[in-house]
Predict the 3D structure of the following.
Amino acid sequence: MADLHIGIDVGGTNTDAVVLDAGGRVIAKAKRPTTPEVTDGLRAALDAVLEMIEDRARVGRVMLGTTHATNAILERRGLGRVAVVRLGAPATTSVPPLSDWPDDLRKAVSAGEAIVPGGHYVDGREISPLDLDAVRRFLDGVRADAVAVTSVFSPADDGHERRVAELVRAEYGLPVSVSCEIGSLGLLERENATVLNAALYGVAGHVTEALVTALAERGLGARPYLAQNDGTLMTLEHAARLPVATIGSGPANSLRGAAYLSGVADAVVVDVGGTSTDLGVLAGGFPRESAAAVEIGGVLTNFRMPDILAIALGGGTVVRPHGLGPDSVGYRIRSEALVFGGATATMTDAAVAAGRVPPGGDDWRDRLMGDMSEEKADILESAVTRADEMVIDAVDRMTLGRSDRPLVAVGGGAFLLPDHLPGVSRVIRPEHAEVANAVGAAIALASGRVDTILPAGDSRADAIESAKEEARARAVAAGADPAGVEIVDLLEVPLSYLSEPAVRVHVKAAGPLAR
């Protein structure tokens, strides 16, 4: 019986893995250093938890949250060349595609850009008829690995994008990224996200192939999934089409894992890693989403991302006489930190000196304080004070003045946090908190979204029902069981500045994975 689930999360310092049984209990867990080639760390963490279970045939699903896509963008590595097509002439020619991109990223990604006639006004009228011959002339003159198509107001009417996508697949045989599936309103940000998605097709292929190969090499017949940036899952087929959706999956996994392990649906979550600390807010058990455009690698995008505040504070953060970080020893902490016999003072050393010791580290303080000068003790004490101030300030920024919510401390460096913090009702330290991100991947649901504009007339109710059905269908396409899909979020925003009344509608559907 395939009743076990494995969750794996690739972080900047460690790769974590857990095994959950049919009752949702953690029966195995492991942390392994994240390697320069991150799939090596993935395999090591997978092997570690497999050794802790007796029957590998019981593993039915493996869920992966990975930094591959994020790293590729940040490092300008492994990205495909994209032909960028905007459907919006003559209305949008004053701001060309990718004009706000960093030069090095644009050079790495763009195979050429064109603005051709097409697109719609917000009320559904055409800006100009779609010119497919202009699209052909542009594509005939470029060499690209993929095509990104963005049409003005495609969330309201995606007809022009779909027609161009059909042409590209039929006549050029290239993969196509269409903006109506990726971003929301805001032409430039949606276009940016669509181009990044197209540039990540090769990276997505590498990740999915590595995961499938790793499972096959170990004789696992488990079905693989990838984690999305909203704390839900998608099939490998879905991920291959929308790889940009995996960006931000790590923090989202931590938030979902924190909710599951603590049993708290509304809370501030502080995930302390080796290099950084991520803060987020749980609302109904899911990550609160960012209302602002999200910058990735110097590019503004507008697809849904968790509202995360990251600060340069982690267990490996280097402590100096007159400063704290922002650099970190990262995965080298077990050879460089003072508590492990190294020569570099880190936040782990400072926390241990203050009596904040992780589970299983009872002898760390004796080892550290055995040869501690008064000067070094003062430096470490000052570092703890500064770190607490950073966390208190970050919590205040995330809670927006509300102090009635608890704080859930997770991550391998959660012991750095004090037991009491102003701005929260209490501090919760759940069991298995150090692998909350992997737990979040293992328990995640599959989801689908629709973000569109609807007329505010008598037909609005029918249109909203249609949007709900589309969200449910997208959740099923991502891997959800059709019988278990529910609408978990419905947001209506009147657009009062239009000549004709309209409503922006955002619908999210989610459900358990299909068996």
